[in-house]
Structure formats: structure tokens, C-alpha cells
Design goal:
The complex is a heterodimer of chains A (339) and B (226). Chain A has twelve helices and 14 strands. With 339 residues, chain A is an alpha/beta fold. The longest helix of chain A is centred in the C-terminal third of the chain and has 20 residues. Chain B is globular, with a radius of gyration of 18 Å. The chains are: A alpha/beta (339), B mainly alpha (226). The interface between A and B is medium-sized, with 30 and 25 residues.
Chain lengths: 339, 226
């Protein structure tokens, strides 16, 4: 459906996107993930034809987007990051204009706009001027704009940015429903969002692809050791001494001091054995009441941070050793200052 | 292209710009009508346009400065450029819509023609030739204003570049005799005598085409540089 082959974008001497290649199949919902300035928007802008890559090839539905932009663009619905809209128009007028721009045949135009308004829940505000709408509604109008003409591919650049939690869940569920009919690429720097919506995640950092995988696999990849999360009521503060009772325990770390007098600890152990059983038994003997006991799962957050820092380390080692030394020096200085 | 023209003309009147342009232009027309025609007791409608052509320098930027600068600033150019429309049709659509606004304004000036009919017999053919020439001048001006607007995301800069350039063309004849024929405003002088001269016609049209093409090039290039 969408294929990028060795795509590079340079701005003068700066390489924003560096030799990226990936393929997205029909019907997939793919998350483009990365910190700010990683090249997410640049990649999306190249797919939509807003900017041209310096090198490489982009295929959309087997059409070369650089050689036949008109044909390729007809298959794409794009919701830009800043949700640009014509503020003087009403959502209905705006969508009608978008339908005309996207060459929706005259006969279908009205029906198409009505469908989109209904899909995105804009019925109530369709005749108000966009300028006066709330942020959430503006976002929806922008999403609606990308849906006009029923394109096969939807490209959503940070669709939930700046919304309140309720609006975020609304837009997310909307995107999920849309995923049944469209191939979707969405960018985000919110990891939980991506793991909720997407089937596949592409992580980019500094213009390069760090990983392409499913959210679950990425989580598994970074899962390390055998950690247990416990919530306990520990009146006599005996928990730290449990290290000696259960030798497998490597570290006990306080995570949260909860308001009801209980505390959450992360207990990591150095062997592969499941220590939950011994924790249960020994804690009870020591008079520590366990309220909650579960295996700690690595979150996508961890995966993300780990992958990105790994990549950075290797890159720096190869390219810029002196920089690293300087950094180390600075760190030392800082530590000394703190002392 | 039709879609773009329709939307652009509409948005001229959704924002105050369309009204300001037409209102300001007609207010100035009325002043000159009183000074140049009623004041001299003449019925030569076309004389009005000698003076009015200078006003174009100051009102055309009102129409053109926002054309691309505003879209770039608000980001809506992303919607335009990622639509299946070609850049050429976007540029032409915007250009034609501004020309339509000027045409609407010109139709209003027929009011003065009507007033003169009451007093005497103004020449219709000369009036039409003058208005045609005026439209050509306006088109040349609009194309330059549009070009200036495509260069920046700041409307004010676009407007100042436009006015500055037009004022510069006023003084071309005194600066250089070889460039004198390219003084857009001086070339207009022949039309009110009822003559459509080929060299004026060709200069106006080629100037217009040149800056439309330059606008297209600027926007195309931005895709690769941006």
C-alpha cells in the first residue's frame, strides 16, 4: 500500500530523514513514533507530497508519488500537525471545499460531506464558523477534512495533541473505527496512544529507523530480569530486611508512597526463578501485609527510551568519541559540584 | 481551478478585505470624479481613470498580500499542496479571483458614467477601452502582488514589497530612457484616448504572464527546499 525506498531528506547540510525504507500493507494502522524533531512530520510530509525527498522513491498504492503526484494524492487523506483550517468558513463549507479540491465528483459531493460530518460527530457545529469552535472540534474538522473523498490512506500527524483526556479517547476510538476501512499512519510521541491504537510501530530517532515491530514485541524485547511489583502495609518497616530472608532478591526499591498508608515497591531479583511465591510466604511471616502482588511488565515507554538511548550510544561511539568524553567530563564536574 | 476561484472570491467577502478594497477604491473614485470631471464641467468619463490608475498602487496590495502569505502562515497551504490540484491551477485560481474583485469594482464605476449621461453624452466606446486598459494594468499589478505574497509568510512584508515596487515603476522614465516603456502606469495613458496600442497590450500581458510563472516556480521550488 505504502512503500518508502531509501528516502532521504536534506536541508542544506542537515539530514532530517536519513535513508528510510519501510512498507505498510493495506488495512494496517501504523504508528510513527519518535521524540520531537526525529523526522516524523518530515516523513509524513514527503508521503503526502507536501515536500519532495532529496533522494529515494515513494510508492502509494503502487503509484510513484514523485512521478504521478496527482494520482497518488487522490489516495491520501492528510491531517497536518497544526490542524490548519480556513477559520472564516463553517465546517460544512470547509469540507465542501476540500471535496472540490480533492475532485470528488459533483454528484457524490454532498453525500460524501454529509457522511464525513456524521462520522466525526460534527452535526451540531456544522454551520458555526470554525474560528469560534473549541480546540477539540477544530481537531475533528481537520480529521474530517482528511476523510473527505474516502481516501484509502489516512495520514494523521499527531491527531490528539492539545486535547483534553475525554477528547483524546474520543478521537482515538474514532481512529480505531476508521482503521477498519482505511490504511492509517499516525505519528505521536505519546507511547500509550500508539500501543492502544496501532498494530505496528515504527520508531524513528534523528531521521533513522530504530525499530519496526508490533507494540507487544517491542515490550517483550526490553523486558529484563524478573521484577515484581508489590503494594504492602509495612508498619514496622521491615521490608528492607527481607533481602536477607530471600536471597534471590537483588534490590528493593520504593516506587510510591500511597495515601492509605501502604507503599509500592519494585522488587527485582537476579535469577530466572519466580519469586512471587516466596515473597508471599516470607512477607506474611514477617508481618508485612501484601495488598497487591504482580509481575512488573516493561511498558512501551521503557522500550522506547531504551531503543533510543541504545542507538544514540552506538552512534556516538562511532562518530563522536570526543563529544562523549566531554560529556563524561561534564558529568564528573556536575557530580563534584553536587558534593 | 473553479473550486479555488469560488472559494477565494467568497473569502474576500467573508473577511473585510473585499469590502475595504471596493469601498476605498470607490471613495477615491468619487473624490477624483468630483475634482477631475465635475470640477471642470466635462463629461469625459475616461479622464477619471488617469487619476484612478495611481490609486491601484495602494489598493492592489490589499488584495494580493494575503494570497499565499496567509496560507503559509496558517499552514493551510499544506491542504492546498497535498490536494490533487496542480500548483499552476492553484496560482491561476487565486489570480483570477483577485481579477474578479477588480472587475466587480470596475462595474461599480459605471455609476459615474450614468451620472454623466444625465449631463451630456460621454463616449461609451472610449470608456470601455479605458476600462479594458485599466483591467490590464490591474492584472499586471495583481500578478506582481501575488508573486510578492508567495515569497514570504508575512503579509505586511508582501504588501510593502508590492507598493515599493509600484512606486519605483513611477520613476522609471526619469531614471532610464531605455526602461521607460516598462513603466506600467505611464503606459496606461494611451487607453483613455480610446486607443488599444499593440505594444502596451503586449507589455501588460507579458508582464502578467511573467509574474504568474515566477509565482508557480517559487511554489514548486519551495517543495524541494522546504
Amino acid at each position: 500500500m505504502i512503500e518508502l525506498k531509501n528516502v532521504t531528506k536534506k536541508y542544506g547540510g542537515f539530514t532530517a530523514v536519513d535513508n528510510i525504507s519501510f512498507k505498510i500493507e493495506e488495512g494496517e494502522i501504523v504508528g510513527l513514533l519518535g521524540p520531537n524533531g526525529a523526522g516524523k512530520s518530515t516523513t509524513m510530509n514527503m508521503i503526502t507530497g507536501f515536500i519532495q525527498p532529496t533522494e529515494g522513491q515513494i510508492l502509494i498504492n503502487d503509484v510513484d508519488a514523485l512521478k504521478k503526484p496527482k494520482k497518488a494524492k487522490k489516495n491520501i487523506g492528510y491531517m497536518p500537525e497544526s490542524t490548519p483550517l480556513y477559520m472564516d468558513l463553517t465546517p460544512k463549507e470547509f469540507l465542501k471545499y476540500m471535496a472540490e479540491l480533492k475532485m470528488v465528483p459533483k454528484k457524490e459531493r454532498k453525500q460524501n460531506v454529509m457522511d464525513v460530518i456524521q462520522k466525526t460527530g460534527l452535526e451540531e457545529v456544522q454551520n458555526k464558523i470554525i474560528k469560534n469552535l473549541s480546540r477539540g472540534y477544530k481537531q475533528r474538522v481537520s480529521l474530517a477534512g482528511s476523510l473527505v473523498g474516502n481516501p484509502k490512506v489516512l495520514i494523521l500527524d499527531e491527531p490528539t495533541v492539545g486535547l483534553d483526556p475525554k477528547q483524546i479517547t474520543e478521537i482515538r476510538s474514532m481512529i480505531k473505527t476508521l482503521g477498519k476501512e482505511h490504511t492509517i499512519i499516525l505519528s505521536s510521541h505519546i507511547l500509550s496512544e500508539v500501543s492502544q491504537i496501532c498494530e505496528k510501530v515504527i520508531i524513528i530517532n534523528k531521521g533513522k529507523i530504530v525499530a519496526i515491530d508490533s507494540p507487544e514485541n517491542l515490550e517483550n524485547k526490553v523486558e529484563e530480569g524478573n521484577s515484581v511489583l508489590v503494594v504492602v502495609e509495612d508498619l514496622d518497616n521491615k521490608i528492607m530486611s527481607m533481602k536477607e530472608v530471600i536471597p534471590a532478591i537483588q534490590e528493593i526499591k520504593l516506587m510510591k508512597d500511597l495515601e492509605d498508608g501502604t507503599k509500592q515497591y519494585m522488587i527485582s531479583c537476579n535469577t530466572d526463578t519466580d519469586i512471587r511465591k516466596s515473597i508471599f510466604e516470607e512477607f506474611a511471616k514477617a508481618g508485612i501485609t501484601i495488598f497487591e502482588l504482580k509481575k512488573a511488565e516493561a511498558t512501551l515507554e521503557d522500550a522506547f527510551m531504551k531503543l533510543i538511548s541504545q542507538k544514540e550510544e552506538t552512534v556516538e561511539e562511532i562518530v563522536a568519541k570526543p563529544v562523549k568524553k566531554e560529556k563524561a567530563k561534564k558529568k564528573k564536574e556536575k557530580k563534584e559540584e553536587e558534593k | 481551478m473553479w473550486a479555488i476561484i469560488k472559494k477565494e472570491v467568497k473569502s474576500y467577502f467573508l473577511s473585510p478585505i473585499g469590502y475595504i478594497f471596493i469601498g476605498l477604491f470607490l471613495a477615491m473614485c468619487s473624490i477624483f470624479f468630483y475634482i477631475d470631471i465635475i470640477g471642470y464641467g466635462s463629461t469625459n468619463f475616461e479622464y477619471l481613470f488617469y487619476s484612478v490608475s495611481t490609486i491601484l498602487t495602494f489598493v492592489v496590495p490589499i488584495l494580493t498580500m494575503r494570497m499565499f502569505a496567509e496560507e503559509r502562515k496558517s499552514g493551510t497551504e499544506q491542504l492546498l499542496i497535498t490536494s490533487p490540484r496542480s500548483i499552476t491551477s492553484i496560482v491561476l485560481g487565486k489570480f483570477i479571483s483577485a481579477v474578479i474583485i477588480v472587475l466587480i469594482t470596475e462595474l461599480f464605476t459605471f455609476l459615474y458614467f450614468g451620472i454623466l449621461l444625465y449631463f451630456g453624452q460621454p463616449q461609451l466606446v472610449t470608456a470601455l477601452v479605458t476600462m479594458f486598459g485599466f483591467l490590464l494594468l490591474a492584472m499586471a499589478y495583481i500578478s506582481f502582488g501575488m508573486f510578492a505574497s508567495s515569497l514570504t509568510e508575512n503579509q505586511i512584508i508582501a504588501g510593502v514589497i508590492t507598493i515599493g515596487f509600484f512606486i519605483l515603476t513611477w520613476f522609471i522614465p526619469s531614471l532610464s530612457q531605455t526602461l521607460a516603456p516598462f513603466s506600467l502606469i505611464n503606459m496606461f495613458d494611451k487607453f483613455p484616448s480610446g486607443v488599444i496600442a499593440l505594444d502596451e497590450l503586449v507589455t501588460y500581458i507579458s508582464f502578467t504572464v511573467l509574474f504568474i510563472v515566477l509565482t508557480i516556480i517559487v511554489l514548486q521550488r519551495r517543495k524541494t527546499v522546504k
